[in-house]
Request: fold
Amino acid sequence: MKLENVTLICVDCVNPELSLKVLEICQRKIEFGSVKLLTHLPIESEYTVKIEPLTSLIMYSVFCLTELYKYVDTTHMLIVQNDGFVLNPHKFQKEWLNLDYIAPLFVQMDVVGSGGFSLRSKRLMEYSAKILPKWDGTEEHANFLQDIFGYYEDGILCLGNRFKSFKFATKEQACEFAQGGNRNPEYFREYPFGFHRTFQEIDFKTGKVDSTTVDNTLKNSYAKEINEL
Reply:
């Protein structure tokens, strides 16, 4: 499958080696228009793009809202992390490219959606950078902006009224796109396109997501599974 209008992108200033493996996993059956690993850490890869250090989740969040679009030359970007990536490449639906944002439902509510594994239009992220306060690149200013925003970047985009003119996925589309820790059985799917950090057991060989045990806690790391793939 070719997705020439999609940039596969990951921002990782903690463990880019693990994220590099995630990028390789995502490309096994999908050819993206571009692939980029944004980091300040030294890692040899054709995908590496140097950025200034992001030393907190808040800095990462503000960077996504105000700077990320600058690194994308395609119409869309698929954001991945080492706790969220492609499971079943063949389940991608081209109609998702008509949307500006699709991601798994939030853990806390039946609302689209968790940004750690998300497909977004560049125009959405350009607009975000245009309407939100400019960031000076420092951690202190990022913390200040976070106090103003009230949410992390995915909450800013998906909750409230700032971005209502853009096309967001329905809940049904979101759960086919990815599973991500939401516990409403109405939105469980066994073979989604991808996943983000979840309580669900995942067979990474078959791409099957098992939702039968719902009292599990959210998993903190998929490093073992990634290194075995």
